[in-house]
Amino acid sequence: MATASDRSRAAAQMKDEKKDGNEKENIWASVLSEVQLKGTNKLSPNQQVVVIGDRESGKTTLVAKLQGNVDPKKGSGLEYAYIDVRDEYRDDHTHLAVWLLDGDASHSHLLRYALTEETYSSTLMMLTVSMTTPWAMLDQLQEWASLLQDHIDKLPFSAEAIREYQHKYVRRWQEYVEPGDELETAQLRRTSRHVDGEEEGMDHLLPLPEGVLTRNLGLDIVVVVTKTDYMATLEKDLDYKEEHFDFIQQHLRKFCLQYGAALFYTSVKEDKNCDLLYKYLVHRIYGLVFPTPALVVEKDAVFIPAGWDNDKKIAILYENLQSMKPDDDYSDVISRPTTRKPAPREAELHAEDEQNFLSRLLQQLQQQQPAPVGISGAVNGSTASPAPAGTGVNSPSAGTPIRGGIQVQKPVDRRSSSSAVPNQMDPIKTGITGTSEGVLANFFNSLLKKSSSTTPPAGMLQTGDRVSVSNSGAPASGNEGSSVPGSPDKLNLVNRPGEVAAELDRLAQSASSRLNPIPPVPVSTNVDNSSSEC
Questions:
Q1: 3-state secondary structure (DSSP) of residue 130
Q2: Mean pLDDT throughout 197-211?
Q3: Across-strand partners of 53?
Q4: What is the model's pLDDT at position 522?
Q5: What are the boundaries of the region Disordered (predicted)?
Q6: What span, in angstroms and rounded, lies between the C-alpha atoms of 534 and 489?
Q7: Distance of CA 131 to the CA centre of its chain
Q8: SS3 assignment, position 181
Q9: How confident is the model at residue 185 (pLDDT cuts 50, 70, 90)?
Q10: Is 502 left (phi over 0), alpha (psi -120 to 50) or beta?
């Protein structure tokens, strides 16, 4: 028969066995719960990003780059888009909703459709500014942050709910760990996932440094500076130096500290930090791995993650500020330029049609050199009739020039005057101007030398000479102005050496003076020819 001590030992043994069984059940239950938690931790389809900023700040182009769209379409008001998110580790994918608010202040009331009480906890705010207007960046950020604060104040939140969102974001800021220690990061994530109350999780956290999260909105915020490729233009056109960009950066980082925001410098044109921005967004929204640390070396590709920055790290930029102080007013140092140099554009040249050019050139030539009137074929290769007596043709002696450099003298009517000097040569009829008297003198000298041997008797012509004489004085048939061998003019000149010598003296005096051509002298003759060979 069992004693009381045996019964007590048996009861204690059964109790221990039951306790061991409960512990085993608790272990398996925890394993199953962890597997179930991992299995149900899919990418949430309710997450969204709200993008705000001024017009021409690059919102549409930036979102199109995150989407992989090469042909962005700009709208107005409140636009909706989405980014395809894939998790290769979990073999899962979802759509991240994106709202783009127009930069016009009149559309700010549309924000109530994107940021509501139900979507507040699943929203990431993105504030965009452009490097093309660095003098306005800080004012734009403060204006949009104030507009966002006014919108949040209008939401039907209780004071306790607002405080809960703020505490949650403070915890997330302080739990930031530099990439590299994966074990510690995983442990912190596991701890934050299983904490029941926010106030309990705040016990082991250190207080925030001075100036950090002084304007805590309880929202995850990312400040994106777009078009950083424009820095080269600022250096060239507006004489920006390295210290100017450091001065801008330190002011932007101080703004981000106040709201607990991350800072990105991006350039869609040069594809800088665009892919990094996408990875950071899915890291902050879905908790995916993000191993990239802060980037502060390249001035146009800066990346400051939320929770990394502080005043001591910002103070490193002060060393490069030579002509300015960190506390100087932003608008005094980065002032709006009075005149901006226009972008150089090469003049576009259009070739004129060849036929149009030639016709225009022909018209100009015709206007500059019109066909002269009353001049024989020595000018234009054609035979022209002499102008009749009494017409108003200008004479070179009168000093009136004719267009084209050609001068026309009044022709002499040999048949109208009987009192004129006989057998006197007409320089215009012979086609010789004042600049060729030497040639004419040589011609007369050659005639004088031949006169002694070749002069026929007066009134007689050599065989082969043809002269048409009319009693009425009408011109003979044939081309007017042509020279007729053995004509009376030629014969009279040859038989009168005294008159030839006088004519040579006159030509010599004219050649020495180089004055205007000799005015025409009417010559009377009974021969019908209008000109002689001379």
A1: strand
A2: 63
A3: 128
A4: 52
A5: 1-25, 328-349, 369-434, 451-534
A6: 9
A7: 18
A8: coil
A9: low
A10: alpha
Q: Which two tokens stand for residue 232?
A: 């080269």
Which token pair is 108?
């700010």
Q: What pLDDT does residue 342 have?
A: 59
Write the burial class of residue 73 (CB in 10 Å: 0-12 exposed, 13-18 middle, 19+ buried): exposed
Residue 103: name the closest of 70, 75, 142 by CA: 75
- Read off the tokens for 433: 């101007």
CA–centroid distance for 285 within its chain:
40
pTM, two decimal places: 0.57
Cα separation, 428 vs 517, in Å, equals 9
Distance CA 413, CA 388 (A): 8
User: How would residue 304 be classed by pLDDT, with cut points 50, 70 and 90?
Assistant: very high
**Interatomic CA distance for residues 176 and 449, integer angstroms:** 125
Alpha-carbon gap, residue 290 to 312, rounded angstroms: 24
Write out pLDDT tens, residues 385-400: 444 444 444 444 444 4
The owner of tokens 């009749």 is 388
The whole-angstrom separation of Cα 273 and Cα 305 is 13
Give the type of residue at 266: T
Strand partners, 225: 129, 265
Helix axes 497-513, 488-495, angle to 10 degrees: 90
Biggest distance spanned by C-alpha atoms of the chain: 199
DSSP secondary structure, 195-235, as one string: ---HHHHTTTSPPPPTTSSTT--SSEEEEEEE-GGGHHHHH
- Average pLDDT over the chain reads 75
**Rounded-to-integer distance, Cα 97 and Cα 110, Å:** 16
Q: Which two tokens stand for residue 515?
A: 């004055």
322 to 75, 242, 318, 326: CA distances (angstroms): 44, 10, 9, 10
Q: What letter does residue 403 receive in the DSSP assignment?
A: T
